[in-house]
Amino acid sequence: MIVTHLSLRDFRNYAEAELELHGGTNLFIGRNGQGKTNLVESLVFLSTLSSHRVSGDQAMVRAGCEAAIVRTTFTHGDRELLAEVQINRSGTNRAQINRSAIRPRDLPWYVRTVLFAPEDLALVRGEPSGRRRFIDQLSMILAPRFSAVLADYERVLKQRNTLLKSLRGGLSAAQEQTLTIWDEKLISLGTEIIARRAVLVEQIRDPLRRAYAAVVDDDHEPTIDLSLSIDGYDVDADDTADRAANSAVPDSARIEAGFRAAMERRRRAERERGLTLVGPHRDDLLFGLNRLPVKGYASHGESWSFVLALKLATAELLRRDSDLGDPVLILDDVFAELDRQRRRRLAEAVTGFEQVLITAAVREDIPEELRAAPIFIRAGRVVDEDAVDV
């Protein structure tokens, strides 16, 4: 998959922008705050319906405007695809493929990108919610219907929590019956989510090991496992070193049985706290290097290398799954954080992808083989090289 044209209107600091892109490396150069990241953010939003910088959509609409439009032309072989999303300040967003309306949540099926940015360091250092979001977003890209399962689970979870809060003062027969109904729905949907995550974790293990070796040129035994609340993991305890990790792929029957047993064990605590204490919303991913958790033990450089390898492994999975070719690989202000050796090895690792988009404030941070035909950005405009100080 190759982006050949990117068109923006009222997106971030761009009133209008029209960019012609090509296969191979595309380098965006400009000082901080000029709009380099805004360009790649627009593509990330088109493919994931989310931003790696903000949680809401409104910040992506230019000040004083009611809507932003991102329009791209993709090619793969002889096939051409026009994808568009309209981000509305109020109301629902709209999407089109080849001028025909589609549901925005279906865009990831047509447009695929993999982003690596400084914010991604939170994957190993941040809260479990970020790691759950990572694995679920990958699931939705590979199987768009999974978004409906997640939405249904969140709805049931909210309803069950509301009921649990009301049970603190006692439990009627009708409430007991209602709780049982919500229990069964939660178990059914939660089992599907856990099973899907387990399959993805298994699929990404080998690509992760290969990618880490490519970036670091050493075997630090990178691992990724699931920590399941139905197996006793407590997200509130943050017991990083001693948590229970599941390295096998559990079948749905075992997950369902474990889910039901865990809910029975925690039933009293749930009623006391008015909160659902087991399920995929309380699970985590455990990242490891050298048989120790990355979080709390890995150095800054090791953490960067692990997350970079995780993103390259993700790109490998998407490449393997798609009939549209490689996902567009996006490296946003990454090279400035790496030493010379890691820069060189990263350059070698990404040259095999059909298209790579790179942003940088300093051109010298980028290995020479990736500097061809740079695009210079200043104050939300594409400008000539002599108009920027890089």
Structure description:
There is one protein chain. The protein is of the alpha/beta class and 390 residues long. It folds into two domains: 1-112 and 322-390, P-loop containing nucleotide triphosphate hydrolases (Rossmann fold); 121-316, RecF/RecN/SMC, N-terminal domain (Glutathione S-transferase Yfyf (Class Pi), Chain A, domain 2), CATH 1.20.1050.90. It has ten helices and 15 strands. The protein has helices at residues 36-48, 107-110, 122-125, 128-142, 146-166, 173-216, 252-265, 267-273, 300-321, 340-350, and strands at residues 2-11, 14-20, 24-29, 67-76, 79-88, 94-97, 100-102, 113-116, 223-227, 284-289, 292-293, 328-332, 355-360, 375-378, 381-383. Strands 2-1-4-5-6-7 form a six-stranded antiparallel beta sheet, covered by helices on one side. Strands 8-12-13-3-14-15 form a six-stranded mixed beta sheet, with helices on both faces. Helix 6 crosses helix 7, helix 6 (173-216) crosses helix 9 and helix 6 crosses helix 10. The longest helix has 44 residues, at 173-216.
What is the makeup of the main sheet? 6 strands, antiparallel
Overall morphology: globular
State mean pLDDT (0 to 100 scale).
89
What is the name of the CATH topology of the largest domain? Glutathione S-transferase Yfyf (Class Pi), Chain A, domain 2
Give the uncertain stretches in residue-range form. none
What would you say the CATH architecture of the largest domain is?
Up-down Bundle
Q: Would you list the SSEs in sequence order as H and E?
A: EEEHEEEEHEHHHHEHHEEHEHEEE
Which band does the percent of strand residues land in? 15-25%
The total count of strands amounts to: 15
Structural class: alpha/beta
Level of helix content?
A: 25-40%
What number of structural domains do the residues give? 2
Main sheet: strand order: 2-1-4-5-6-7
